[in-house]
Write a structure and sequence with these properties.
The protein is mainly alpha-helical. The protein has seven helices and no strands. Helix 2 packs antiparallel against helix 4.
Length: 149
């Protein structure tokens, strides 16, 4: 391949990639994160969304989050995962939800599973994207902001 043909091919690829709407990128980020946190919450609740006894055991014996009593931490974390996942899917209070999850990921990284950083850094990157740039046009937030202007 001739050098100018390669440059043209790369330029075409770059233009195509830059043409991907941010709203699609944000939607994929929101759905990906919601999936991670929803599945985590599902391991902690029964079919009626009540915390399982094993959840309290985990927070007391394994997670050991400092400052917050284990029972309260179990409720806070589980319902943040459940409610936050729904909020991410529909794109409501996205930046606030992303910020709350960034805090949760930081606590998990520092106090619970420091060796889990390869997953945590990915979650953080997507959450930081949503916090910094918002949920995109495919969101309830976008509809609300459009109506207020």
């Amino acid at each position: 391949i001739e050098m100018s043909a390669l440059v043209n091919l790369l330029e075409t690829g770059r233009r195509l990639a830059e043409g991907i709407p941010y709203s699609l990128v944000a939607l994929i980020a929101r759905l990906s994160l919601a999936s991670v946190f929803w599945r985590s919450a599902q391991t902690k609740v029964d079919e009626y969304f009540q915390l399982k006894s094993t959840t309290f055991f985990l927070f007391k014996e394994e997670y050991k989050v400092p400052v917050i009593p284990p029972d309260i931490a179990a409720y806070l974390a589980t319902y943040q995962e459940l409610i936050g996942s729904v909020l991410l899917v529909i794109g409501l209070a996205t930046r606030l939800t992303a910020l709350a999850f960034i805090g949760m990921v930081a606590v998990i990284q520092v106090f619970v599973y420091p060796s889990g950083w390869p997953d945590h850094i990915l979650w953080f990157a997507l959450l930081f994207l949503l916090f910094a740039r918002g949920p995109g046009a495919i969101s309830v937030d976008h509809l609300i902001w459009r109506r207020t202007k």
